[in-house]
Amino acid sequence: MFSLIKLPRVFTINQVPKVFHEDGIVSGYRHPHSSATDCILSLFQLTNETLNIWTHFLPTWYFLWKTGTVVLMLIAWQDFFTWPLVIFLLSCCIYPLASSCAHTFSSMSERARHICFFFDYGALSFYSLGSAISYSAYVFPDEWVNSLFHQCYVPMAVLNTVVCTGLACYSRLGLPFLQYNHDIVNRLPVSPKLSKYLRVVAFAYPYLFDNIPLFYRVFLCVGEGCADNDTNILHCKHITLAFLTGFLFATHLPERLAPGSFDYIGHSHQLFHVCGILGTHFQMKAIEQDMMTRRPWLLQNSIPITFSNSVGAGLLCVVVNLTIILLFSLPLLSAPVFKERKHYSGLKKVSAKSCPCC
Ligand SMILES: [Zn+2]
Predict the structure, then answer these.
(1) CATH, range 28-337
(2) Cα 265 to ligand 1 centre (Å)
């Protein structure tokens, strides 16, 4: 059947605009003005994005299945104690789904690429809030439960999502209307290095903040009141994988050592996706186990789980983050389409001549 479908051609780094370039990736680029159909077809064709898409698309279904199971088996709508877990699980479904969509459709145009990744950043931000809501409910060490830090923890995590999404979106093009408008072709107001640095900070900061109670519980706390139990092993597995995920994202290893050797299989972004998902899996197991084993003690001693510190905080985060994404996307959405089309119209002809092999 696939022999009847003509798969789109792929390009080398010199044939696509700078905004599509990835460090250490030399070939396997899709056309920078692909149609939506070409983007979907590229799922079944080996390009440098194919495994980026599948490594997040398949886990989305795993987390959806897990969410469905929890909601149905624990009758979550009746049991307010499970609400934070459900919010966390929803965030675990949304971030890989947004990421796989972003990687699928990011080659439709330069503007589409920016907007796709704005959504990707918003979803990651929501995942960090999902983690914070569930940590506040189930993971805080006994001796920090009900402390001032515990009471401020979820509101601060909501605020952090604004910083995280805002900074990550800013890292692509700067401030909307002030530093960029619809005329973004050949313009990169933020240098690629600074852009990468800002993005690392944007995601490392909320992760580190969210994990303060967990780091204290696992690495620093001694004696009673540490909630020192079997779950700590699962938490440690999650922390190790999270640091490996951050390391891969920041260093671009292994492709930086051998540019062109990992274009299709084995480059850092694929490994980053896989480690991130494995980390999320262990994090989910740990949160679930803490929720089950600590339930009686937490119900008696911890801050009560309410609509505002669980579902309400999640909804607020979604509304605020969508507003930020809309603000950053507006100048791009108002662009006259023909301008970009014209810019790339010659690429197919030129590429066909210069790269008969692809
Ligand atoms: Zn990705």
Answers:
(1) 1.20.1070
(2) 14
- The residue behind tokens 């886990």 is 59
In this structure, what token pair is assigned to residue 90?
Answer: 């929803």
**Alpha carbons 85 and 41: distance in angstroms, whole number:** 36
The HSE-up count of residue 209 (CA atoms within 13 Å, CB side) is 25
**Range of lowest pLDDT (204-218, 259-273, 340-354):** 340-354
pLDDT per position as a tens digit, 291-331: 999 999 999 999 999 999 999 999 999 999 999 999 999 98
- Three-state secondary structure call for residue 21: coil
Please give the C-alpha separations between residue 183 and each of 20, 27, 32, 111, in angstroms, as whole numbers. Answer: 17, 27, 16, 10
Listed residues: CB within 5 A of ion ligand 1: 99
Is the pLDDT at 172 greater than 90? The verdict is: no
Binding-site residue positions for Zn(2+): 103, 269, 273
Q: Residue 52 C-alpha to ligand 1 middle, in angstroms?
A: 6
CA distance 239 to 233: 10
| CA pair distance 105, 115, nearest whole angstrom | 10
pTM: 0.89
Binding residue ranges: 103, 269, 273
Dihedral (Cα; 47, 265, 112, 349), 10-degree rounding: -30
